[in-house]
Each structure stands twice: as C-alpha cells, then as structure tokens.
Amino acid sequence: MTMDVAAAGTAVRRGSAFNDPRLRSIFYQAVLLLVVIGIGWFLVSNLIHNREVRGIATGYGFLNREAGFAIAETPISYTPSDPYSRAFLVGLVNTLKVSILGIILATLLGVVVGVSRLSSNWLVAKLAAGYVDLVRNIPLTVQLLLWAGLIRVSAPAPRQAANPVPGVFISNRGIQVPSIENNPIFLWVVIAALVALVIGWGIARWARQRQAATGQPFHSFWVGLALFIGLPLVVWLAGGAPAAFEIPELKGFNFQGGWTLSPEFAAMLLGLTVYTASFIAEIVRGGILAVSHGQTEAARALGLHSGVTLRRIILPQALRMIIPPMTSQYLNITKNSSLAVVIGYPELVSIGNTIGNQTGQVVEAISIFMAVYLFISLSISIGMNVYNRRMSLRER
Amino acid sequence: MNFRTLLAAGVAAVVAAGFAASAQAGATFDAIKQRGFIQCGVNTGLAGFALPDSQGKWTGLDVDTCRALAAAVFGDPDKVKFTPLNAQVRFTALQSGEVDVLARNTTWSLSRNTSLGLDFTAVNFYDGQGFMVAKSLGVTSAKDLNGATICVQPGTTTELNLTDWFRANKLEFKPVVIEKLEDVESAFFSGRCDAYTTDASGLAATRAAKAPKPDDYIILPEIISKEPLAIGVRQGDPQWANITRWVFNAQLQAEESGVTSANIDSFADSPDPTIQRLLGKTPGMGEALGLPETWAYNAIKQVGNYGEMFERNVGEKTTLGLKRGLNALWTQGGLQYAPPIR
What we know:
The complex is a heterodimer of chains A (396) and B (342). In chain A, 67% of the residues lie in helices and 5% in strands. With 396 residues, chain A is mainly alpha-helical. The relative contact order of chain A is 0.12. Chain B is α/β, with parallel strands linked by helices and 342 residues long. In chain B, a hairpin with a 5-residue loop joins strand 2 and strand 3. The longest helix of chain B is centred in the first third of the chain and has 22 residues. Classes of the chains: A mainly alpha (396), B alpha/beta (342). The interface between A and B is large, with 51 and 55 residues.
C-alpha cells in the first residue's frame, strides 16, 4: 500500500524532490532529531560553562573520597570512613528494600480490598469503598508525615518499651525482635528450600500434563508445600538444629542486639502500602468488572461455588486487564519511595542529597538518581511485560 | 504559519536564550543596582537569626546583616527581599543567582570555599556545635552519649562534626537525619532521639521557641567544633564581595568607637580621623567601594552597630539569652575584629 502511494507521488510530480512524501518525511525527521540534539547540547554545554565560570568543581571523582557521615540503617556494612560510592549503594539497597516489600504488601492488600468492594456483603463492600475514597484522595507526603508522627508520638520511650512477647520490644526507637545467630547451616537450609521449589515446579508440571491426558487431578500444591517446609526442616535437624537467639537488651539509651524495624522504615512501608493498595484495589475491581457476567453465570451453571469461580474463572481473565496498569503502580511505589526524605528514612535520594550538599556535586548526584531510577523502572517494566505476554490471551 | 517559519523562530529562540545565558554571568552588583533591591538568603525560621513575625516582617541577626547592606547600598534598609532557604538548597540558590548574598548560619570551611565556588566575606557569628538532651535522661556530658540516637539535619557541617567527634572518642551513635528544621525539632521533642545536635546558638533558639517546656531540656557543656557562621557570596564579583565584607566591618568599627544608631549624629564634628572616615566626612572610602560616601553612616544609623544587632536579636535580654562570648569585640576578649577602615 505505502509503496503504491509513494510511487504515485513520484509519478505525479517527479520534478521537485521536496514534494516526494518519502524524502520529505526523512527530511522532517532529520530536522527534528537535529533540534532535539541541539537543545540537549545547548543545555549541557551551558551547564558546564556556567559551572566553570563560577568555579564549581565537576566530575565523578568525589565518589572515591571518604564520606564522613553516618547512616542510620545499613543493610550492607558501612562505616563513615567508607567512600561516597558505598554510601550511595547503602541508599540504593534501602530503596530496593522498601520498594520490593511495598510492592508485595500493596498487591496483597489491594487485591483483598478490590475484591471486597465487589462483595455482596454490604458492610464489607462499603468499608472497602470508604478506604479507597479516603486514602486515594490524600497526598502521599501528608500520609507519610502522619504515619511517622503517629509512630513517634504514640510509641513509648525505650525505657518504658512495651514488651508483649518475651524478647520483643516496641518503643519509639522501633520494634526490636530477637535475631537468630548466624550459623553456616542456614546457608544449606536456604539451598534446600530452593531445591524444594524446583522439585515442586516439576511436580506441578507433571500433574498438569497428567490431568490434561487422563483427567486425574493431583494435589500438587499440598505436596509442594510439604516439600518446601519439610526439606529445609530435615536439613536443619540434620545440621544439629542450631537455635541460638540474640535477645535485644536495653543498654544505656537504646536496645542492642537483635533485629530492628525502625519507625522511619515502618512509616515508609505503611505509607507506600496503604496508599498504593487503594489504587491497586480500583484496578482489580475494574479488571473483574470487565470480565463478562456471562462467565460467572456459566461457572455457576456448571456447579462451581463462588470461591472457585473467582479463583479459576474470573481472576485469570481479569489478570489480563490488570497487569498493564499494575506495572505503572509498581513503578509509582519505587519512585514514591524517594519521598522518604521528608521523614528521614535513609534511601537513595535522602543519602544522595546529603552527598550532593557535602561535596557540592549536586548535578552529579542527581544524574546518579536519574540513572538508578531509570534502571529500576525499566527492569520492572521488562519483567511485567514478560509476565503480561505469558498471561495474554492466545488465540488458537 | 508554515513549518519553515516555525523552525526559523525556534532556532532564533534557542540562539537568543544562549546569548541571554552568557550575558547573565556578569557582575552581581550591577544587577542589584539595576533591580533596586538585594536578594538575601536566610534561614527558614530560626529565632534570633531569621524569623518572620506575624506581619511577615523578618527579624534576626542574619536579617539585620542584610538590612545593613541594603542601607549602605540604597540608603534604605527595607530594599531587601528575603528568601528562606533550607540547609540543602542554600548553596544552589546562591550559585544560580537566586540570591545575591547568603546570611544563613553557614559555616565557612575550606571545601565550601573551593568546590562550591563561594567566597565567605565576614563572620557575623562565631558559634560551635553542641548537644541538647532532655533533663530526665540524667546526662551531664556529651561523653555519656554512647549508643544514643541523635537527631541532625542533613547536608550540614554539623552532620560531619557529629560523626568525627564520636569516631574520635570511640563512641557509637545512631543518626536520625531529617531535612526540614521544624520536622527535626518535632522528632526530637517527641522523643524519637535522645539528643539533638546543631550550633549552640541554634540549640538555644530551638529550646526557647519550640520546646513544650524549655526547662525540661539542657544544653550539654561540650562544644565539639568551630562554626564561624559567615556571610557568603558567589565568586566572580569582587566589588560585591568587598561591599558585604566592609559594611559588616563598619558596624564592628562603630561599636569599637562607641558609635550607635542613637548617638551617631553627635559624632558629626568628631575630631577622631577613624570616625571621620567611617562617617564619610573624610571622603574616599565609599568611592573605593563604589557606594555613596554615606554608606556606613546609613548602615549604622538605620540598622545599628554590631553590638546593637547582637543584643536586639540574640543577647541576654532576648529569649535566647546568649552571652557575647567569642562574639565580643577583640578589645573585650572576643574574636570580633575589624581591619582598619582606611
């Protein structure tokens, strides 16, 4: 088709190259490209020039200098004598920690609320609707400040910490729980769990094929679960069942030892989860409503009860509608985690701002943020696109 | 409009923007004179240094420092616009030209001088970093703070001094780093942290203005750092840097010579050559700075000498109740010393 049009164009007015639609489109695209490159070049060279004129240092050499400031939460080892690059890495790990947990929890809560909103139980449906309407219309920053403030004000001081279960302390310094002392056997326990997962996957595949061929069902889920719990347990018992706990203890001002869930992290996770779950709930509700009601009626006519109808008939079809908008919610969680700066959770932007200010290399710090967020976002997008392709309707 | 004209207009706009940007790199002082007022970067709200009152009028030592500049340049202390800046954006605001001068509890240090492209022209307050704790903790010395959780603002020399001091004393601490001053203060008063650290003057201001009960908190005796809080300008306009330096020095000299805003006119016929030069009776000083000869007269008459600024904003009769200490004149055992105005 296009070739025909192009051929016709050249045939009618061969004289002027400017009237050739193909050449013209190439010309305009080239001009557009030049303009974009030109503006980009102008902005960058302007920046470099102005910084030179004002005597501001440029470059990424500062990343190897000693950071000299402490960070509250360090999932990977970090001391103030480590370089700035290490501090950035700590921030990145903190960002990933809160984002990944936020994505998992928001999805669970969002699906529950979304399904509840469609429930035939009046109270459940109205409660879910109220939750969505309330949470979705309050800015996230306000919610984060609210959560952080609530936790700081309502929790007791460490010396009056609540002690609901022996070894667990709740105070305005966070929640302290006993940690398990490290032992080489735990590495093998994790490996055993992974092996169990692989075997479970194999069994599920075999069961599906057998059911397709013979119609005989097989409870692969329960077998898999038993494997997943049993195999690591056997390894742990075989390794002498080490169970030395480190109990948190109040020493001086704060608790020492054990694992800590800091108030800032808790506020951040709560805020992101509660806020994003309200959007996910609406996406789930929309996805379910988009599945034709005839499907439900057909399932009921076959004698399936409502739980099975939802799990086996409605949700798999709704998922196709749900995945693409869900991707953007996952991206939002990751990007919104940068709001941690207002409540003092040390994630990438919070630490990067400090670095930018200590060194004066603000532009460099921001360029690192941009690269990191771009990388995380693209990774999520690619992952979700792969999943989407697997779930999409295959026309046969 | 067809595509080609549109394109031509676009190219012209980009080129014009380029010229505008390069012309902007000119002298700061010329821009100030043309604009008719000074843009001054101050703290977002720290009692005694920069705090807007209920009518939106700014008061404080840093505010008066800028008002004195406006009086010297324009003969009117109100020809100044205040821009509240937090610790993190202050240098960017100065570098980008959003403000002309930074009088915002900013510590003069080598790396800020060199890698940020800033000049520090005069120290308007000699400070040092301290700690504030609740009395109920029973702590009497900063050395008792091992294992404490400490609230601090990011991007400050405070954050670095804190880490250095604990490392030097082989003590442990956990920072809680919050960007906004009000948020870090409320986190401390809600009990999230055992101690709050910033410059000692800032601790006094926070305790006086924000503590639910100021008497429940004490400031520990240790001062762990040198914090010369200085007036900052961006590099590239030595004339403007000189003006900020010498207006402040003139206020110091006035205090040393006993000249105040109230009695300045009685010095009109003073035989003292130092005072004659200061008040412009012997011309030359103003001209050298590119200012009217009444520059120092206006600054002192309309805003006051350094001692007046200090007592009015942070002195013993104010809620902060700070002693002159290091900020006394050199003749009284302090560090404030104006080089000769001649």
